[in-house]
Amino acid sequence: KEKEDIEAASKLAKELGIPYHVFNCVNEYETVVLENFKKEYLSGRTPNPCVWCNALIKFGVLPQLAKANGVDFDKFATGHYARVEKEGERFVLKRGIAPKKDQSYFLYRLKQEQLANIMLPLGGYTKEEIRDIARSHGMEVAEKPDSQDFYGGDYNELLGVKELEGNIVDVSGKVLGTHKGFWNYTIGQRKGLGVSASEPLYVLELRKGTNEVVVGFADKTFKKSLIAVDTNWIAIDGLKEEMQVTVKIRSTQQPVPAIIRPIADGVEVVFEDLQKSIAIGQSAVFYDGDRVLGGGVIDRVN
Fold first, then answer.
1. What is the mean pLDDT of each run of 10 residues along the chain (302 residues)?
2. What is the pLDDT of residues 129-146, one digit of tens each?
3. What residues contact residue 266 under an 8 Å CB cut-off, 6+ apart?
């Protein structure tokens, strides 16, 4: 797949008459993205590797490598469906105009110096409009499938750990079944649990210390608030007081109303409506309309 992608990109660059370069970021990717992914998963958290890859590799290491290898450029462009605009002295990240394709969630960790030097030309179009433009120029990429998850195989291949049998328990601690490692489960998972009950069970919690997977009925999956840490702010310098915003707690979700307020170690988020299956380790991204205010990593759920 990687070889095919490189060949396709090389062919397209030749057709457009623009220089083509390949830079190897494998070592940095393994150190920054995969090691973080492994550490988080084995801690019972659910990481979002694409967030870190964008901030540290795609918009960090890659342009730096290009310049270090003599490629001179004014702006660094990518195909993300999001927008960057300047408001006064500040660069602001905005949602792409097509809600279902918006990728601003994955870019909330970008810094001002990164936003100042990038272009996101697709953010003002829908995916189908971009495909139509490509077709009108006879580009094969017009029919290319949408990009998928950061890794197409079994996550156990990345984690590199042996099976470790543990218990699947309900909220009272009653043992309902067994599993072969808590890292094989994600918060909110319903299928493939291997235990039966009077109604569907969902994964509520992953306990590293006891190697337990805690499950419960749907009503137990809903929570009112969360704490986000390791925050990054884009449209504002930082959160100084309580704000009414909208929030995304997963990339595929449309933003929902909430109040955010600063606390000692991060941001407290209180939702207007209960939210289902909030996963520790994922990101909470805060919006003011189309503007990305900032975001942080979900650390606790209440």
1. 85 92 92 91 92 95 95 94 97 95 97 97 95 92 74 70 94 96 94 93 96 97 98 97 98 96 97 97 97 98 94
2. 999 999 998 888 888 887
3. 227, 228, 229, 230, 231, 296, 299
In angstroms, the Cα distances linking 55 to 99, 170, 222 are 22, 38, 30
- What's the rounded Cα separation, in Å, for the pair 38 and 184? 12
Q: How far is CA 99 from CA 102, 246, 265, in A?
A: 5, 14, 31
Residue type, 42: L
Length of the chain: 302
Q: Tell me the whole-structure pTM to 2 decimals.
A: 0.93
Amino acid at 78: T
Phi and psi torsions of 275, nearest 5°: -115, 140
